[in-house]
Write a structure and sequence with these properties.
The mean pLDDT is 96. The protein is globular and about 60 Å long. It is built from 13 helices and 23 strands. 31% of the residues lie in helices and 27% in strands. Helix 7 packs antiparallel against helix 8. By secondary structure, the chain is of the alpha+beta class. The structure holds adenosine monophosphate and glycine. The site of adenosine monophosphate (AMP) has 15 residues, from strand 7, strand 8, strand 9 and strand 17. Glycine binds next to loops.
Amino acid sequence: MKIMIIGSGGREHTIAWKLSKSPRVEEIYCAPGNGGIGEIARCVPIGVMEFDKQVAFAKENGIDLTIVAMDDPLVGGAVDAFEAAGLKAFGPRANAAVLEGSKAFSKDLMKKYGIPTAGYENFTDVEAARAYAKSCKLPVVFKADGLALGKGVLICHTREEAQKAVETIMADRQFGEAGNRMVAEEFMTGREVSVLAFVDGRTVKVMSSAQDHKRAKDNDQGLNTGGMGTFSPSPFYTKEIHEICHRTIYQPTVDAMRAEGRPFQGVLFFGLMLTQEGPKVLEYNARFGDPEAQVVLPRMKNDLVDVCEACMEGTLDQVDLTFEENAAVCVVLASDGYPVHYEKGFVIHGLDTVKAHEDQGYYAFHAGTKKTEEGLVTNGGRVLGVTAKGATLKEARANAYRATEWISFENKYMRHDIGKAIDEA
Ligand code: AMP
Ligand code: GLY
């Protein structure tokens, strides 16, 4: 089979790597891809939102299946565009990807179907939001309704912060059109878990759990980022919690979407908070997480193509989804200054050492890299997701941090406490 991936980050590199292990896959294409992806796939210079060009390329090159891995094209209707042209694409259609594309939609859905989540109010009118910020209970969480690269969430502990947040999102439109609507949410406390699931419209099968580290600096300080590191599985996500989540969150969400005439087929990502009152939904994403994919897919035993097909054909109930009984940790190597200002274009050294250890479970998944005449250079805020497996989480963490030392580039930055929570388990 010939498979094309839409996207260009560490998640897409991980998907490409996983596909490269499938005996069913002859050739992998990626639009637009990156330096690392180019080593195992043919990178195609087509943008993630250029659906017409993607479809034309798929037709001309006999692509059998396209995996749409990123939020923007999913929400924008990439899968619909492929299907309209009679082509196969993996991922939810736009009417289901709205679960990620609109936080107001997802909150209303949860309310209607009794799925546990934080109490909330939606706002379209800035004056009403200003009035709310003056008197609401603190802390409060304000979220831009639409896609904002994971940055449209503002947690406000003081009245001033709350009032400023409304201006940032709704008046100054710092997250652009994502701020046309805003959700105000009750602040929850507890441990966060990311649970990714395959869904075929009816059946939901979860992958091994993971935990992300969203803040830029150690001890969860600094700005929110796309994710600075992950580990899998989460020791806090017990079998008992899983049963509760399946009964109160996963299956009800999938059933609700079907009942709404928006059957969800693809990867559904449940961002959960394990609160005192039980697990609650923080957010839904309509795709693999990044960098969750980097610790989950290397541990998945199934052929990814088989599972994607089962999701599209509605036969997921017949799939026995299995994961290795080990652990993985991913430490993101970023450019110093991310997520604000950072320089690019520095040569990356040491990738060969990681490659030489791949059969021992070490990987460098590329996020922002580019191939140049001088070699691979940094080309983004997040540069690499250095991932390692281990028999236990502690071993995987030690291995991942050892591998970060093999790699060097100017302005290399990372958190040193990825997986620290493991010690509390
Ligand atoms: P989201 O993109 O909605 O997952 O929000 C990003 C991050 O903000 C989450 O991973 C949480 O750490 C935090 N967050 C979001 N909503 C809440 C909430 N209601 N209470 C506490 N923290 C939250
Ligand atoms: N790591 C969180 C996300 O992919 O949205």
